[in-house]
Amino acid sequence: MGEVAAEVEHVDVLVVGAGISGIDAAYHFAHEEPDKSFLVLDGLESFSGTWLMHRYPGVRSDSDLYTFGYGFKSWTGPPIATAEEIRAYLGEVIEENDLAGRIRYHHRIVSASWSGDEDRWTVTATRTDTGQTVVVSCGFLWMCQGYYRHAEGYTPEWPGMERFAGQIVHPQTWPEDLDLTDKQVLVIGSGATTATLVPAIAGDCAHVTVLQRSPTYFYAGPNSNETADMLRDLEIDETWIHEIVRRKILHDMQAVTELSFEEPEFLTDVLIDLVAQQLPEGYDVAKHFTPRYRPWRQRLAYLPDGDLFTGISSGAASMVTDEIATFTETGVRTVSGVDLDADVIVTATGFNLSVLGDIAFTIDGTELDLAQTITYRGMMFTGVPNLAWIFGYFRASWTLRADMVCALVCRILDRMDDLGAHRVTPVLRPEDAGDEVLDWIDPENFNPSYLMRSLHLMPKRLAKPEWQHSQDYWTERDLLPAADLDDGCLRFT
Ligand SMILES: Cc1cc2nc3c(=O)[nH]c(=O)nc-3n(C[C@H](O)[C@H](O)[C@H](O)COP(=O)(O)OP(=O)(O)OC[C@H]3O[C@@H](n4cnc5c(N)ncnc54)[C@H](O)[C@@H]3O)c2cc1C
Q1: Label partner for 332 (CA 20 to 30 A): which of 91, 177, 250, 385?
Q2: Residue 3, domain member (yes or no)
Q3: How far apart are CA 231 and CA 28, in angstroms?
Q4: Which residues are within 8 A (CB) of 179 and not within 5 positions of it... i.e. 6 or more apart?
Q5: Which of 317, 349, 381 is the endpoint of a domain?
Q6: How many whole angstroms separate alpha carbon 210 and alpha carbon 55?
Q7: Residues 80, 174: one domain?
Q8: 191 and 50 share one domain
Q9: For residue 295, what is the domain's CATH number?
């Protein structure tokens, strides 16, 4: 342990993480609970989490910023935004709401312990700049730590990797000085990262090949919003435009979601047809762009201006649908015996899930195993007092849920004040006792591999809305604001 700061500072609420969720929490807290003290701690050197850490070429959102942005702050740029644009937006939120003084960077939290005698959490952080140990206590701990480990991405162990003479790079830890000029690049994986990265590098390197085990759904369109453009022409106020366009996008997304459940084959045909229209005649769309899963079981990847297809059509990029048999000295040999040579191999193979920010939690001296708990509305956990986390949507924009969770946390804190309570703990009611305990998410409904790999680490759910995170914005937008805090799921003491 480094040198320990002498004083233990106490705040009413401590927010962990200054990403889009933590800034959302700080905004709501500053406005809705002005009499309470709060602090935000983040291990990084600045705000925005995901949008600070990811530095691979072309990094951008894959949802539109009318819904990925906050409800309370208008988005005025193109719908799909670069990391810099998102950072600038978040920077404005911090400045406009005077939040800078509430956020401390370089504080990596390593442990959090709850004391029932004192009704408070004691949180220990290591300063990443000085090595000092800082201890803060709080009445309520608000975890906005995101869902994946920032330090390194997920790279499977493939046979022969050590033989490869070139460079292997994960997009999450992209080397600043990586020069791809005239290089043969092989990108493994075909998710949103690949769709972003490939168009960004296709013009610079000699050639980029995408090797995917199985195809992903993509849909392409202009990086503009017709409704927003029309309303801007009419000189409508930006706050109105934000609200109208947000509602329109959510309305359209709901229709797509419903279609994916009710008429999955029809939706598949529509999506595949749209892809075929963007590619040269005779292109093997069935092999490379026809997924094996029903649409919406994973997030649809949006291609602004169809840029991935432009790369393929121009010959700068190509797709291979096959499996890796082994790495070789010069690249990868596939199961069908094709040798794919490369100078640089990019493993766009996803994340390592991080549950609760890799922090060691104890409750009255007992180690917390979150996988043994049941979630209250995807934001609190049975037997874990005075703690909430923000876990957003994967299919719809993450922030839609973050906004609603923020409002609910503030309501819960108000309820504690009204009751003179110091503690709020989710508890199963007698009527919940016999319910089947289920995994965090139903894989039939949504099954991205980073979540499936680590499902055993996640809290459990029951089938009732009170005890799950349904990943369905369109039901939760009614359920969460109407949550009855006196239904017995929360014990206030
Ligand atoms: C390239 C990329 C594109 C994406 N695009 C979209 C999109 O378009 N739409 C969408 O909905 N989602 C998208 N996502 C998912 C995205 O991560 C989330 O939507 C959102 O950014 C999460 O915000 P967050 O604040 O919850 O978490 P993060 O952005 O992960 O931020 C968490 C913060 O918590 C801090 N933290 C964590 N643990 C600790 C600790 N122990 N001590 C101190 N600090 C800690 C981290 O340093 C970080 O700053 C994308 C993800 C990636 C990687």
Answers
A1: 177
A2: no
A3: 28
A4: none
A5: 349
A6: 20
A7: no
A8: no
A9: 3.50.50.60
pLDDT on residue 347: 97
pLDDT of residue 3: 66
* Grouped pLDDT means (10 residues each) for the chain, 493 residues: 72 98 98 96 97 95 95 97 98 98 98 98 97 97 93 91 96 94 96 93 94 92 96 98 97 90 92 94 95 80 90 95 97 98 96 90 97 98 98 92 98 98 98 95 77 89 95 94 97 98
Report which protein residue has its CA nearest ligand 1's atom 38: 357
pLDDT given at position 300: 79
For 388-399, write each residue's pLDDT tens digit: 999 999 888 999
C-alpha 92/C-alpha 101 separation (Å) is 14
Residue whose pair of structure tokens reads 């990811």 in the numeric block: 54
Query: CB-based burial of residue 162 (10 Å sphere; 0-12 exposed, 13-18 middle, 19+ buried)?
Result: exposed
User: What pTM, to 2 d.p., does this model score?
Assistant: 0.95
Residue 201 within a domain: yes
Residue 29 near residue 390 (C-beta atoms within 8 A): no
| 268 belongs to a structural domain | yes
Which pLDDT score is estimated for 245? 98
Q: What is the pLDDT of residue 295?
A: 83
Task: Measure 237 CA to ligand 1 centroid, in angstroms.
Answer: 30
The token pair that represents 252 in the structure block:
């359209």
Both tokens of 422, joined, read 């110091």
Query: Does residue 474 lie within any of the structural domains?
Result: yes
Neighbours of 92 (CB within 10 A): 11
Q: Read off the tokens for 86.
A: 């998102």
Q: How far is the CA of 46 from the centre of ligand 1 (A)?
A: 13
Q: How many domains does the chain have?
A: 2
Domain boundary among 310, 332, 349: 349
Ligand 1: list residues with CB < 6 Å.
Answer: 16-22, 41-44, 49-50, 54, 59, 61-63, 68, 107-109, 144-146, 150, 357-359, 390, 392, 397-398
The secondary element (H helix, E strand) that includes residue 151 is none
What range defines the domain where residue 166 resides?
Answer: 155-349
E-only strand ranges, 6-80: 9-16, 38-41
Helix axes 398-419, 20-32, angle to 10 degrees: 40
Whether residues 236 and 267 fall in one domain: yes
Residues 406 and 143: their CA atoms lie apart, in Å, by: 11
- Do 132 and 176 lie in a common domain? no
Q: Atom 19, ligand 1: which residue's CA is nearest?
A: 398
Examine the domain organization and report whether 420 and 276 are in the same domain. Answer: no
Instruction: Please tell me whether residues 70 and 167 are part of one structural domain.
Output: no
> What's the rounded Cα separation, in Å, for the pair 264 and 354?
32
Greatest Cα-to-Cα distance within the chain, rounded to the nearest angstrom? 71
Per-residue confidence (pLDDT) for residue 324, from 0 to 100 = 97
- Return the residue matching tokens 């009170």: 466
161 and 64 in one domain?
A: no
